[in-house]
């Protein structure tokens, strides 16, 4: 049949959650490598942790390669701002807006 997409191939390579390395970034990312026996981390993260525990710098040979997406962004230095800039309000404008909000709430209550 047709070719499998790259996301399907990646899903096949990732071990089940109970066998997967537990290293996360505190957000959504989680290491895709298989954890070692009797340890919750993969070999690379386990060795990095042992070295950091001694407050030594992790050698380049133990560091993991990151995705190319991040490197491309750094080279281009293009920052995408997704939020719209809000107009800065003066003190008088803020007070007027508060008064408008209070009056609007009172009108809504009377309805």
UniProtKB/TrEMBL annotation:
Signal peptide: none annotated. It comes from the Eukaryota. GO terms for biological process: developmental process; DNA-templated transcription; methylation. Keywords: Activator, Methyltransferase, Nucleus, Transcription, Transcription regulation, Transferase. InterPro entries: GRF, WRC_dom. GO terms for molecular function: ATP binding; methyltransferase activity. It holds the Pfam family WRC. It is found in: Nucleus. GO terms for cellular component: nucleus. The keyword Methyltransferase applies. Transcription activator. The QLQ domain and WRC domain may be involved in protein-protein interaction and DNA-binding, respectively. Belongs to the GRF family. This is Growth-regulating factor.
